[in-house]
Design brief:
The chain has eleven helices and 20 strands. With 350 residues, it is of the alpha+beta class.
Length: 350
């Protein structure tokens, strides 16, 4: 049966629903329990009716947060692709023709699986853009809400418009970074935050300010490789030409690795920084997903592996799959574009 989520209630009886001839997008009346708005929305298994007052759209598929992102970008670059059909039959939310860079704003509600955005939707859009020579940056709603400064820094860096463009990396000193400073720097400047590492190195300017770091640990997922580049980022709004290459060279000198692997988020980055630092592309990974409850909160899928669900969910059925159990408890999921996997084999190079 249909599972209602969110703060809405139907203004019709189940008898009326069962007696109504079913059309694919047959609309029914609803009431928002947050603001009291009455509205019409179709009823489909797993899809939550969304209040147009609490979640207003400026036009089909365009949210207030997307509009905010547009307002923060330079108007001289901005072109509305909806009129250009550059990647027909799809649309781009934002397109910079002078840079061949597009931005897709992925709201939790309209880009979740229940809204017909399946496992390959975001990846297929990325691949179509790549076939046209366009780099596509995916901005997910919860990242914009909680990490707006990081997202803007990534976008401006890709556009060559970072607020502070640093001179060559040669002018910066390399220091080992302690775990507390590494954690703080990554939480403030890296979209994925902190992950424990074995060693971390940083570039420090003449004033002693930490500008960029790279952290390394033993390979977590592919044991054919000895080391993994876990995190690499500069301070928000800063760009240092050759920064990662300099940190990599120091890592090689200090640790003498046999080989190295790293994972590049395909939704945010094109991987050119890896190539310029000596990596080669091994393979892409399949898309992965996050779980969302009421299209407001987002959680890692690793927290909801099936063997953990019995202790986490109010309703659990061992005979059902992880996804079926999650749906039974009112969860939806949203897919990313997967990663590009980059590697270096130092033994072959030498």
């Amino acid at each position: 049966g249909t599972r209602l989520q969110g703060k809405v209630k139907p203004l019709f009886t189940w008898e009326h629903f069962l007696e109504t001839p079913k059309e694919k997008y047959q609309e029914f009346p609803w009431e928002c329990l947050t603001c009291g708005t009455h509205f019409s929305f179709f009823l489909e298994n797993g899809l939550v009716p969304r209040c147009p007052t609490c979640y207003p759209l400026l036009r089909a598929g365009e949210s207030l947060m997307e509009k905010e992102l547009q307002s923060l970008l330079s108007e001289e670059f901005l072109v509305e692709n909806r009129k250009l059909n550059i990647i027909f039959p799809y649309e781009l939310d934002i397109f910079f023709p002078n840079h061949n860079i597009g931005i897709e704003f992925n709201g939790l509600y309209w880009h979740a699986e229940s809204a017909k955005k399946d496992k390959n939707y975001h990846l297929n859009k990325t691949l179509l853009c790549e076939s046209k020579g366009i780099d596509l940056i995916h901005v997910f709603e919860w990242q914009w809400v909680s990490q707006k400064a990081i997202i803007m820094s990534i976008i401006l860096n890709r556009l060559g418009s970072s607020k502070i463009v640093r001179t060559g990396a040669r002018e910066y000193k390399i220091e080992k970074v302690s775990t507390p400073i590494e954690r703080s720097f990554l939480e403030e400047n890296h979209i994925q935050g902190y992950v424990p590492s074995k060693v971390c190195y940083g570039l420090v300017d003449k004033k002693g300010e930490l500008i960029q770091i790279a952290s390394f640990g033993y390979s977590r997922f592919n044991h054919d490789y000895e080391w993994e580049l876990l995190r690499s980022c500069s301070k928000i709004d800063n760009s240092i030409h050759g920064g990662l290459s300099k940190l990599m060279s120091f890592f090689i000198k200090e640790q003498s690795p046999h080989n190295l692997i790293s994972y590049c988020d395909r939704g945010l980055f094109n991987g050119k920084g890896y190539i310029s630092s000596g990596f080669t592309l091994l393979e892409p990974t399949a898309p992965s997903y996050w779980y969302t409850k009421n299209h407001k909160t987002v959680e890692s899928r690793y927290s909801y592996q099936k063997h953990k669900l019995k202790d986490k969910l109010m309703v659990f059925d061992e005979s059902l799959t992880e996804w079926e159990n999650m749906q039974l408890n009112g969860y939806d999921r949203i897919w990313n574009c997967g990663n590009k996997v980059f590697v270096i084999d130092y033994e072959k190079i030498s």
